[in-house]
Amino acid sequence: MESTRKQLIELLNKKDGHISGQELSNQLNISRTAIWKHMNELKKDGYDIEAVQRKGYKILSSPDKMSENTLQWGLDTEWIGHQLFHYDQVESTQEIVHQMAKQGKPHGTVVIADEQVKGKGRMARKWDSPKGKGIWMSILLRPNLPPFKAPQLTLLAATVLAEMISERSALVPQIKWPNDLLIHHKKVSGILTEMQAEQDAIQYIVVGIGMNVNQNGEEIPEDIRHKASSLKNEAGEEWNIQETVQHILRLFERTYDQYESDGFEAIKANWEKHGYRIGEEVTISTMKRTWKATLVGIEPDGALCVRDRDGNHEKLYSAEIHWGEGGYHA
Ligand code: BTX
Question: Which intervals of the chain form a coiled coil (predicted)?
């Protein structure tokens, strides 16, 4: 975003009441005519700006259409989304963040798109990302962590999404290991974490978040309709995508900061609180055998801990889980 404009929005946002043209002009070191021109541009972008004589300007509301301005307006974060890039259409936000990471963009950089034409899931699966219907966003992180702890950031992201949904609605989100977000047994969100690392240090991580927000039932592709849904479809009403994105970013920052200072315990507890079928018995298959076990919880390395009928505990890194009624295999 053009920086004067960004600063202008930040200033308008800081003040509860109006801010005078003179004050804006002093702070930004540009003429009052220039301020007036910027205001007109913001109005063209769909901002509702009130101008009151002798008091100054105030933003009453930001436009519905997502843009860098509107996403950053009111985003009172310390480090996440200060560099934020919005695109109408991309192949995949993941790829853009990888490029930005290589160019040296900072921790907390966010890329978001209205539509992805090559949205990707784990293991080269496809991620359906229709225009204007969901959150297709990638976050660049530069954590000071050993690579083996990287899976904790995926678990962290899942808890953030679950918390956001709980705070904004009466829906009860559940996290299905490793990282699907379910509502009423159907997937509304997926997380793709990709890491660039050397042997003992992470260079950077890209956390990709895909969240179905406003698709109607028939807008979900037919082949996944039995197992996928959207927030609107489950809550019965339209969601404001920008506010939802801002909510995710604020919570992400807060949770990440807590994780940095206090470690993984709180994430683990929160994940397990939302964990799908935790404490229940499911059937598990690996290449070697099939057995029944109770899901106990997650481990610091992202493994799923299970207990068989003889009381033996085991850590699973990859396995096929038969989730039972309503569930499905990843
Ligand atoms: P995943 O491998 O767990 O899930 C992919 C599987 O989920 C697909 O094979 C399909 O069965 C199903 N699926 C595809 N699209 C959807 C959808 N919209 N809703 C529900 N189920 C679906 C999950 O991978 C990780 C997804 C991350 C997506 C984000 S979006 C921003 C970023 N950019 C990008 O290209 N990927 C990430």
Answer: none
Atom of ligand 1 nearest to the CA of 127: 15
Task: State in Å: Cα 204 to ligand 1 middle.
Answer: 21
Tokens of 201: 């240090």
The response to whether 116 counts as a known ligand-binding position is: yes
Please state which of the four CATH numbers 2.30.30.100, 2.60.40.60, 3.30.160.390, 3.30.420.40 is assigned to the domain occupying 281-327.
Answer: 2.30.30.100
How much is the mean pLDDT over the chain? 92
3-state secondary structure of 178: coil
Distance 200 CA to ligand 1 centre (A): 29
Give the pLDDT band (50/70/90) at residue 222. Answer: very high
Task: CATH 3.30.930.10 in the chain: give the residue spans.
Answer: 68-274
Residue 187 is labelled as binding a ligand: yes
Second-level CATH architecture of 68-274: 2-Layer Sandwich (3.30)
Which helix (H) or strand (E) segment is 190 a member of?
A: strand 186-197
- Report which ligand 1 atom has the smallest distance to the Cα of 228: 20
Where are the domain boundaries for CATH 1.10.10.10 in the chain?
Answer: 4-61
Architecture label for domain 4-61: Orthogonal Bundle (1.10)
Which numbered atom of ligand 1 lies nearest the CA of 91?
A: 35
List all residues whose CB is within 6 A of at least one atom of ligand 1. 92-94, 116, 119-122, 125-129, 136-138, 180, 187, 190-192, 208-210, 212, 224, 228, 330
Where, residue-wise, is CATH 2.30.30.100 in the chain?
281-327
> What confidence tens digit (pLDDT) does each residue in 99-134 have?
999 999 999 999 999 999 999 999 999 999 999 999
Containing H/E element for 233?
helix 231-235
- Name residue 297's beta-bridge partners: 305
